[in-house]
Amino acid sequence: MSVEEHVPLARYTTIGTGGSARFFAKPETLEELHASLRWAEEEGVPVETIGLGSNLLVHDDGVEALVLKLAGELATAHVEGDLLVAGGGATNAVCLHRARAAGLGGFEFASAIPGTAGGGVRMNAGAYGREWRTVLVDAVVVDAQGPRTLTLDELDLDYRHSGLKAGEVVAQVRFRLEQSTPEAVKARAAELLAQRKATQPTNKRTFGSVFKNPEGDRGAGSLIEECGLKGHRIGGALISPRHANFIENADGASSADCIALMIEARRRVRESFGIELRHEVQFLGPLALPDL
Ligand SMILES: Cc1cc2nc3c(=O)[nH]c(=O)nc-3n(C[C@H](O)[C@H](O)[C@H](O)COP(=O)(O)OP(=O)(O)OC[C@H]3O[C@@H](n4cnc5c(N)ncnc54)[C@H](O)[C@@H]3O)c2cc1C
Fold it and tell me: Which atom of ligand 1 is found nearest the CA of 125?
């Protein structure tokens, strides 16, 4: 197992901001992953995992941890009967490709979610009325003690939430899909992607939804938009003129710029509607939003 030091993380995130990982490794097998986790425990170093960094904001000063990015066989996917078996680091695009080739449907909702199978478990990612827990059977989760298989119930998935604990890494996921045809899967995925492109800034650097939708019928984007914040800019970051629950890296943004926009959006929504927005984007390093 090789551990690199001081590896810049901005290129591993879709927003493209943030500093370096103190330690960084790309385990390619379950054994390498377990060895990395044991190493971190022995060294007393916390562990963080990144997928495609598509819902991630990294502190500008970096993160004092071992950051893992699953690769090799931990980033592949294959089909067994009606099961799609994906490494935790397999991208949703690869998963969908394998499912489509095998004529399995039910994963098309993930076509517009630019993450990995493991990141999707952590976030219970979802779109268009479906989410990870709709299709997930179980997941192999690894910590310094070794791998164990957690059932859907044990993973405790809820709206953009899972019961995974710090330092637990999703190494493999099994999804149960439905019989379909490659043509039908392709057509459905294309339809959902077109819907997505019509409403969201898909060709900009963002980290997806900034805030979770609060309870009630108003989405976070609509509340922020009503505060007049679409297009509001701090430093190189801007609240997307296309969808107000997205922050774009318009021009050399820092993570601090993104946080400043989040603070402003939360303050204004609280003032106008009495609603406290909670962030969906995950923080790496000592980032936090102050109490309102
Ligand atoms: C343009 C765009 C559109 C998006 N649309 C949607 C959408 O419709 N629905 C939606 O739910 N999300 C959406 N997202 C957000 C994001 O794609 C999802 O949350 C995705 O599931 C994150 O996966 P990831 O692999 O990139 O995880 P990362 O962003 O890398 O990490 C997110 C969290 O998961 C953890 N994590 C990552 N991999 C693992 C692993 N193997 N084991 C344990 N923990 C892990 C990280 O530590 C972090 O806490 C969008 C993002 C973008 C940029």
Answer: 11
- Asked whether 113 lines ligand 1 (CB < 6 A), one says yes
Mean pLDDT over 283-288 rounds to 97
pLDDT in tens, 238-274: 999 999 999 999 999 999 999 999 999 999 999 999 9
Is 93's C-beta closer than 6 angstroms to any atom of ligand 1? no
Q: Is the dihedral of CA 165, 138, 119, 216 positive or negative?
A: negative
Q: 285 CB less than 6 Å from ligand 1?
A: no
pTM of the model: 0.98
Rounded to whole angstroms, how far apart are CA atoms 227 and 50?
33
CB of residue 116 inside a 6 A radius of ligand 1: yes
* Nearest alpha-carbon partner for 185 in 99, 125, 120, 93: 99
The preferred substitution site among 9, 47, 113, 150 for testing ligand 1, maximizing ligand atoms within 8 Å of CB, is 113
Helix (H, G, I), strand (E, B) or coil at 159: coil
Residue 120 Rama label (left phi>0; alpha psi -120 to 50; beta): alpha
Report the separation in Å between the CA atom of 20 and the middle of ligand 1, taken as the mean of its atom positions.
Answer: 19
- Helix/strand/coil percent split, the chain, to 5: 35, 30, 40
* Amino acid symbol at 89: G
pLDDT digits (tens, 9 = 90+) for 98-146: 999 999 999 999 999 999 999 999 999 999 999 999 999 999 999 999 9
